[in-house]
Amino acid sequence: MSRVLVRLLMFQWICTTCFVTSETANDTKNLIMKLFQPAGYTKTIRPLINQHHVLTVRTDMFLNSIIDFNEQEENIKISGHLFIRWFDEFLQWNPEEYGGLESFVSPQDDIWRPDVALHNSFRTFTGLGSSNYC
């Protein structure tokens, strides 16, 4: 069984990836129907079959630019990419049954995602990600 490596690419803390690739559109449609509808995928449950296990979530932050730096006020404004990766044990399938499809990228509102927030923000507490984007 293949595991989906769920990848969320967040540009300036908003995910903008929203595509699925496969051999045919029917392969993708059939896989999504299997994973999300009859299987009863629930994004409110951590993606581990054994809920006592620890879920490893990897993050990388890549700085694009420093927009503003004020030493006297002790603040900095930056732009960058935040990458978040984990394995979702509920999103597994046999690739041969779906035209060789081994992975896909899903809109962030369709799958479980870790709570990520910018705790050290200058003025306000800012949650990362948005339901306005995929």
UniProtKB/TrEMBL annotation:
<keyword id="KW-0732">Signal</keyword>
<dbReference type="InterPro" id="IPR006202">
    <property type="entry name" value="Neur_chan_lig-bd"/>
</dbReference>
<protein>
    <recommendedName>
        <fullName>Neurotransmitter-gated ion-channel ligand-binding domain-containing protein</fullName>
    </recommendedName>
</protein>
<dbReference type="GO" id="GO:0004888">
    <property type="term" value="F:transmembrane signaling receptor activity"/>
</dbReference>
<dbReference type="Pfam" id="PF02931">
    <property type="entry name" value="Neur_chan_LBD"/>
</dbReference>
<feature type="signal peptide">
    <location>
        <begin position="1"/>
        <end position="24"/>
    </location>
</feature>
<feature type="domain" description="Neurotransmitter-gated ion-channel ligand-binding">
    <location>
        <begin position="29"/>
        <end position="124"/>
    </location>
</feature>
<dbReference type="InterPro" id="IPR036734">
    <property type="entry name" value="Neur_chan_lig-bd_sf"/>
</dbReference>
<dbReference type="InterPro" id="IPR006201">
    <property type="entry name" value="Neur_channel"/>
</dbReference>
<dbReference type="GO" id="GO:0005230">
    <property type="term" value="F:extracellular ligand-gated monoatomic ion channel activity"/>
</dbReference>
<dbReference type="GO" id="GO:0016020">
    <property type="term" value="C:membrane"/>
</dbReference>
